[in-house]
């Protein structure tokens, strides 16, 4: 493998518990008040595409603008201080670079949220490329954002390994042709049938990635 592509929420940062809380307690009760929508269904999706999904599958009580506002308010709160960095992540990035691997961030988050994370955790120099769902036509679970990152790195999909914490994200990475690790170190939100393997903690993830890069 020549490149490692990291999802952001639930992998690089442990924001997923906060996101699940906001979806469960604030966002979904406002958008789908009857309680029929499961937060797991929309985990990993670009927030500006979530309203279309909910409106197509459930009885929605607000419009797209209000739904987006709820997500944006949650994002400001989460990335402003609720999220923490994966244990040992800067050291992992250094080790991957030392072995000649490229490192990418591939996320459904928009650039203003990404920038908050990079600045908060001193990661502005960590990634060789950053791909956001805001930059592509279709977000996860479609492969577009992974394809964008792989193209930017100049690598073949078969030479890339992706790390994802959600089913939607894993489907996107698999569809793009990357070897996919489902990471359950923050929350167990991956359909086990989708990724190529599962890893449950930062130390094991480091071990597996360094082994794959060799």
TrEMBL record:
InterPro entries: Beta-PGM-like, HAD-like_sf, HAD-SF_hydro_IA, HAD_sf, PGP-like_dom2. The lineage of its organism: Archaea, Methanobacteriati, Methanobacteriota, Stenosarchaea group, Halobacteria. The keyword Magnesium applies. One of its GO terms (molecular function) is metal ion binding. Belongs to the HAD-like hydrolase superfamily. Its cofactor is Mg(2+). This is Haloacid dehalogenase. Pfam families: Hydrolase (PF00702). The keyword Lipoprotein does not apply. It comes from Halococcoides cellulosivorans. Keywords: Carbohydrate metabolism, Magnesium, Metal-binding. It comes from the Archaea.
């Amino acid at each position: 493998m020549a490149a490692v592509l990291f999802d952001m929420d639930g992998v690089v940062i442990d924001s997923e518990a906060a996101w699940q809380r906001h979806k469960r307690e604030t966002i979904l009760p406002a958008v789908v008040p009857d309680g029929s929508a499961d937060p797991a269904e929309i985990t990993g999706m670009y927030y500006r595409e979530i309203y279309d999904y909910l409106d197509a599958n459930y009885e929605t009580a607000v419009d797209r603008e209000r739904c987006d506002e709820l997500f944006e308010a949650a994002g400001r709160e989460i990335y402003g201080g609720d999220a923490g960095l994966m244990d040992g992540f800067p050291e992992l990035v250094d080790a991957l670079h030392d072995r000649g691997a490229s490192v990418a961030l591939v996320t459904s988050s928009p650039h203003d949220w990404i920038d908050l994370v990079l600045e908060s955790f001193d990661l502005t120099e960590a990634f060789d490329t950053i791909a956001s769902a805001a930059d592509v036509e279709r977000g996860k679970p479609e492969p577009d954002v992974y394809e964008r990152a792989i193209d930017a790195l100049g690598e073949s999909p078969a030479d890339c390994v992706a790390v994802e914490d959600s089913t939607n994200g894993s489907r996107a990475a698999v569809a793009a042709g990357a070897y996919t690790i489902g990471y359950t170190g923050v929350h167990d939100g991956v359909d086990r049938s989708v990724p190529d393997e599962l890893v449950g903690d930062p130390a094991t993830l480091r071990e597996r990635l360094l082994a794959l890069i060799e």
